[in-house]
Amino acid sequence: MGKKKTTAAIWTVFLRGSMLSLGIYFAGILLLALLLVKGAIPESGAFPVTAVLCFLSAMSGGLLTARQSPWGTLPSALLNTLVFAGILIAAGAICWQGITWYGHGSILLLCALAGGVVAGILGGRRSHRRKRK
User: Fold this and answer.
1) If you average pLDDT over every residue of the chain, what do you get?
2) 124 φ, ψ to 5°?
3) Which phi and psi angles does 36 have, rounded to 5°?
4) Quick one: angle between helices 73-95 and 10-38, nearest 10?
5) Exposed, middle or buried, 73 (CB in 10 Å: 0-12/13-18/19+)?
6) DSSP letter string over 73-124?
7) Using CA atoms, how far apart are residues 58 and 49, in angstroms rounded to an integer?
8) Which residue spans traverse the membrane (predicted)?
């Protein structure tokens, strides 16, 4: 009698991936704000750091989702990235009066999408070594 591996519900996988992405993003934004106030990072460097942070947070959540989802790695990572980007768009629409999509807003969304694509490519299943007899 073999042990059956239990799998989590698909929505919990995407919830964990999205929460990981948001947690990393918000923790990074708080650290960036602290470094800006202390003067360690100049104001002109705030946007590139935010873009890299958006890429890394989308990639980390996408990797988690791609490895745990029963769907393919690229669709899982991209769906997690779309949820992450949707939450960022919703927060931006609620908190600010006008979002300029011609400026930095679209670049941040492209960074998030690139992070999801990289996670989908790198997030392949781990190969299991077979024991030789």
Assistant:
1) 85
2) -60, 160
3) -70, -40
4) 50
5) buried
6) HHHHHHHHHHHHHHHHHHHHHHH-S---TTTHHHHHHHHHHHHHHHHHHH-P
7) 14
8) 20-41, 47-66, 78-99, 105-124
Instruction: Report the alpha-carbon angle 30-28-15, nearest 5.
Output: 110
Which two tokens mark 74?
A: 């690229």
Q: Express each pLDDT in 67-125 by its tens digit.
A: 888 888 889 999 999 999 999 888 888 887 666 666 677 888 899 999 999 999 987 76
46-68 and 10-38 helices, crossing angle to 10°: 160
Report the b/e string of 77-107 with b at 16+ CB within 10 A: bbbbbebbbeebeeeeeeeeeeeeeeeeeee
DSSP structure class, residue 23: H
pLDDT of 101 reads: 61
* Separation CA 123–CA 84 (nearest Å): 17
State how many domains the chain has.
1
